[in-house]
Write a structure and sequence with these properties.
The chain contains 17 helices and seven strands. It has 392 residues and is mainly α. Among the domains are: 135 residues, Helicase, Ruva Protein, domain 3 (Orthogonal Bundle); 55 residues, no CATH class. Helix 6 runs parallel beside helix 11 and helix 9 packs across helix 10.
């Protein structure tokens, strides 16, 4: 499951945007010819290029899927309850038992705990059961041709071509997610090239059928993106009445000790070292669940850019490692999609950067909401309500 797709690593093979123009749109056949020309300029063999692009075609179903991501507009409680079922909890524990040695290796070699790997494995493909049925090359070329985000997808076309050259992808047979991710943990081609690991030692990398390959590749990618070995990522907390809510949100980091001095307490267990820096987030406002999040939580946005998805995955990971169900509280009523768009338009008119008028409560919109709440004398928790919309 992706939202605007995880940030793309473009390190080893020059997949960055660079000097080559990121053209898009127009006649699809002419666009593909342009890709072929650029691939040759990048040093790929002409015959290889022709074979790779021979059967490529535009897939309208990919564009439809890209435009249809309504689940990310749901509030945290609804979203997390939809994704975290008892079946997934049971399957997560069973897969941990089945692959315990691999998860032990992931933690030993990369410092990534089992819960976080299990959570993404569950959400992305239900532990490999639902990996997608879109032709990977068609999906990537279609999205590169589409002018919504060509700077993201055009480099992935050339990364997929490199995978083909290495025997890691079949342009006709390889299938995966609508956005071009492949395998049990849904990795984009450039990430596969940069971080894929032969976890089962059979001399090849198969992220679609080998759980050890998929698990260790995910751990290697997270470590490369900045995951700190064996540090926490999220812990549920309770906030005191009277807390300065302008300090909440991802823009503010304090030490655990400083948060404790302000009255923030764990709802279960104990918080980590007092010197560790952390933020306190309120996904559904000050009347809903509260979490203290750490550096490792922030690295998860390199996997997926959706605040609601990352927070849910991080929370699910703690559940898989023994944490209790969150204290749901009684959040104030939020906004529907149309109301959210109206809010974003009004915030943008006031000069706030909301990151686009898309009806989704993303990080930029949350920050803008928090700022305008403080200006209007409302609880500045970043959770937009009908009252705030009326006041604007």
């Amino acid at each position: 499951m992706r939202f605007l797709i995880g940030l793309v690593t473009v390190l080893s093979l020059g997949f960055g945007t660079g000097a080559q123009a990121q053209s898009c749109g127009g006649n699809f056949g002419a666009f593909v010819e342009g890709l072929k020309t650029e691939a040759a300029q990048r040093g790929q063999d002409r015959a290889l290029i022709e074979n790779f692009f021979r059967n490529v075609r535009h897939e309208q179903s990919v564009i439809n899927a890209d435009r249809r991501q309504g689940i990310f507009q749901r509030p945290f409680l609804d979203f997390s309850r939809a994704l975290i079922s008892q079946n997934r909890m049971n399957a997560g524990r069973a897969n941990y038992d089945r692959h315990r040695a691999v998860f032990d290796r992931a933690q030993r070699d990369y410092g990534v705990q089992p819960g976080i790997l299990l959570a993404f494995w569950a959400f992305e493909t239900d532990f490999g059961a639902n990996q997608g049925d879109f032709n990977t090359v068609n999906a990537l070329v279609t999205l590169a041709h589409d002018c919504r985000r060509p700077e993201l997808f055009r480099p992935q076309v050339f990364a997929a071509l490199e995978m083909y050259r290495r025997g890691m992808l079949d342009p006709v047979q390889t299938r995966g997610a609508w956005a071009g991710e492949v395998g049990m943990v849904q990795k984009l081609p450039s990430d596969i090239i940069d971080y894929a690991v032969d976890g089962d030692g059979d001399g090849r990398i198969d992220l679609q059928r080998s759980a050890p390959d998929a698990i260790l590749s995910a751990a290697a990618m997270l470590r490369a993106k900045g995951w700190r070995a064996n540090e926490p990522w999220l812990h549920e907390v309770a906030i005191p009445q009277g807390l300065d809510l302008t300090r909440t949100g991802l823009r503010t980091e304090l030490t655990v000790s400083q948060w404790a001095q302000m009255g923030v307490r764990p709802t279960h267990g104990s918080l980590p070292s007092g010197n560790l820096r952390a933020s306190v987030i309120l996904p559904q406002g000050h009347r809903g669940p509260a979490f203290m999040v750490f550096h490792n939580y922030r690295t998860l946005f390199e996997w997926n850019q959706s605040f609601i998805y990352v927070t849910t995955a991080a929370y699910f990971a703690t559940r898989l490692q023994g944490a209790p169900v969150y204290q749901a509280g009684n959040p104030e009523t939020g906004l529907n999609q149309d109301q959210m768009r109206q809010l974003q338009q009004r915030l943008a008119q006031r000069g706030f950067d909301v990151g686009g008028i898309d009806g989704i409560l993303g990080a930029n919109t949350r920050a803008a909401v928090q700022d305008v709440q403080a200006q209007l004398g409302l609880p500045a928790d970043g959770w937009p309500t009908p009252q705030l919309l009326r006041m604007l």
